[in-house]
Amino acid sequence: MTDFALLSTPSDWLPELRRRLVEAYRANGLPAGAAEAFVDQRAEKADGWTAAAVLDADGRRVGQVVLSTGDEQGRLLGRIRELWTDPALDPDGAHRRAALAWARGWCAEQGAYRISVGLTAPDELFADYPVRGQARLKDLTDPAEVPAGASHRPLTEAEYEEWVAEGMERYAGDILRAGSGTPEQARRKAEEDYRQLLPQGRETEQTALVVLEADGEAIGHAWLKHQHLPGVSYGYSLDVAPRFRGRGHGRAAMALGEQAVRAAGDRALMFTVWGGNEVAMNLYTATGYRVLEETRSQDL
C-alpha cells in the first residue's frame, strides 16, 4: 500500500530535490557552478509547485513527488519536477509506480492535457512516453578541430531579416515534428520566442549570430547565447543549409560553433534537440555531445 501526504512548505522537499538534481547534472557533465545555477533558475517558481511525501503502509516516508502546471501554447501542461523513492525502501519500485499514477491523477484534476517529465538518466517507468526533446552538452576543453577552409563571421544587418524568417520556419517545423502543437501554435511560439530572445536583434546582449563558411561560401548559421550559465554557452540553433547537407559540413559547423564559444570565453556548449530529429541526435552523439536531460511526455 502507498499513501501520499501533501507537503506544505518548500523547505520540506526543495533542499533534497535541489541536491539530487545538481548531482545528476554534474554527473552528466555540467560544471558545478553551472549545475547549481541551472537548478536555481528552474526552482525560481517553486513556491507554486505542489509536493507530496510518498508513504508506505506504516506511514514511513519513502520518497516524494513534486508537480507543477504551466501553459503550453494555450493548453495546460502538467510537469513532474521530481518523482523519487529511496531504493532501499522501495526495492521493487511499487511506490514509484503508485507515485506516477498519483501524479497523473493530480495533473488530470488540474485540467492538464499532457504530463511531462525531465529525465537525467534512462528510466523504465517512462519508457512508453514519447521523447519530445533532449538537452545536449559538451565540455570544450578539447574542442573539435576546424577543417581547413572552414571559418565563421558575424551575420550582417542585410542578412538578418532573411535569417530570422528562415529560422522561425525551421523552428516551427521542429515543434511540429516533436508533436508539441498544431501548425498555428508552432508558428506563434516561434514568433514569440524569437521576439523574446532577440529583443535588440543582432545587438542583443551576449548573443552571437554567426555565418558558417566553407572555402568562402556560406553553408549555414549559428545562434549562440554566451554565459547562459556560468562558463556555458547555449546554442539556440546551429544549422547547415539543405543544399550543403550530406557533404560532411555538419561536423564542420559543430567545430565552428565550438570555436566561437571558446573565443567568447565559455568552456562548454549546450543546446536542445527536438524529439523526432534522429539525424541531428546521431550527429551530436558522434561529435561528443552528451544527453544532459531528456524530456518525455504523454497525453492524459
TrEMBL record:
Key words of the record: Acyltransferase, Transferase
Record-annotated N-acetyltransferase domain positions: 150-300
Pfam family, one: Acetyltransf_1
InterPro entries: Acyl_CoA_acyltransferase, GNAT_dom, YpeA/RimI_acetyltransf
Domain of life: Bacteria
One Gene Ontology molecular-function label: acyltransferase activity, transferring groups other than amino-acyl groups
CDD domains: NAT_SF (cd04301)
Keyword Acyltransferase attributed: yes
Name of the protein described by the UniProt record: Acetyltransferase (GNAT) family protein
Protein's organism: Kitasatospora viridis
